[in-house]
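Subject: Sanity check before I submit

Could someone independently write out the structure tokens for this chain? I want to compare against mine line by line before I put it in a report. The sequence has 243 residues.
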Amino acid sequence: MATTDTPLGSIWQSVVGWAGRPPDDEALEAVEALIPQGDAFWGYVRQFASLIVLSAAIASFGLLSDSAAVVIGAMLVAPLMTPITAAAAATVMARNARLVQSLLIIAFGTVAAVAVGWACAALSGITASTAGELPGQVVARTFPGLLDLGVAITAGAAAGYILPRRSTTSALPGVGIAVALVPPLATVGITWHLGFASESWNAMLLFLTNLAAIIFTVSMMLIAVGFRPGVSTRRALARRFMI
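---
Independent answer below. Compare away.
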């Protein structure tokens, strides 16, 4: 009996056939729209810069006041998930220019959030002679562990599932709340201002771990639904070969 004639073989062939199907135009266009190109790009950058500064300020004051609710609010405002998912999509589709563009936006957001955290700590006048005197919300971002990695992996999987499905985009804010991106960066700035180098590094390590885990799991989810190098929408192909 051939392998495909068995129940297990039939299931395997179904899985392979499903995973090998290219994504439809709607899914591809959803990925293309993550970071606008052309004249709209600089408008996106200005909007991103405004939101990263505001979200980092909210996170910083929430961390300094030891308010979990305010920190959660900052996660909702934070715009970092967009360039991160765009970087994952560009990696899967082997679009180097898009990947570099996404990584530069992420780098800009990282530096801006750390700088805002430093400035908010300076403006608040907070002092601490030992790490134990730091607010609890700050301390919580200076001990990265496997549980944080687990949250980042599952949140990345959720983002990867939502990304090509516009009907599920209402769930995306929940992903932003679940994963820690801006609060650790604000913590880096706060602890850096106070002179706690070890805590500052640990907070940055938390961010970098979450960043890598999200990019990896979003990439895996996109591969699972058929994204590959060279895949493009029919409209894009029509424009490319138009004489």
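---
OP: Matches mine. For the report I'm noting this point. The chain has twelve helices and no strands.
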